[in-house]
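User: Can you help me understand a structure? I only have the sequence.
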Amino acid sequence: MTAQRGVALLVVLWVLAVLATLLGALAATVQVQHRQAQWQASHTQALFAAEAGVAQAVMARQARDPRARWPADGQPHQLRLGDADLRVSLYSERGKLDLNAASAPDLSRLLKACGAAPQAIEPLLQALEHLRQGPVPLRTLDEFRELPGMGFALYHCAVPWITVWSGQAQPDPALAPVALARALALPAVREPDADPGPILTVQSEARLPNGYHATLQVTLMLTQTKEGARPYRVLRWQE
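Assistant: Let's start by predicting it. Here is the structure, written out as tokens:
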């Protein structure tokens, strides 16, 4: 009888240990799912706030009052939307180096300014020229990223300065970022009222009080449409 009680006690203890393990695993799973849901909710909120920043930039650029229009000079605009802090900048594609139209010397200066090794520049230029001689021009910046020998750091440095939408052989000095103008030895020209053209890039960063944030870089073409229609067409969207 005593032996049976001992076995029963061991069985009960074993069952309790298994249940405790299962409950612990369940609690850990619930906690992880709760954190994931919290992260997803905060990230979505920050992303929506960043999208609102893009819309605000478009509205500010198309304001009827010229004095209220944002210049496409890359200067950040601090905004507040609910409990989200926004930092929104507007850039003109005319102030960037067009991969389809730029000269080889300017492309070489760009790559050099971004730290490309001298022996790597010529193969990159040859690969790019091969693409430019194709039946259609480059349509996306991803084609530049996929060039043989293109590293992440080099692309990350160059991408804010390049475009495939301006059609100009050189960036407009009045709209070019200071660092790009310096790299290409462009004349120092600052014209606050310079026409940025219809194709712009908006960088919108939203930050929440809990530390979550989201950043959007959207290249869009402003359009003259009927009232109620979307005032722009998205050419590139990157989170």
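Now, to help you interpret it: Residues 97-170 form one domain. The first strand starts at residue 77 and ends at 81. Let me know which part you'd like to focus on.
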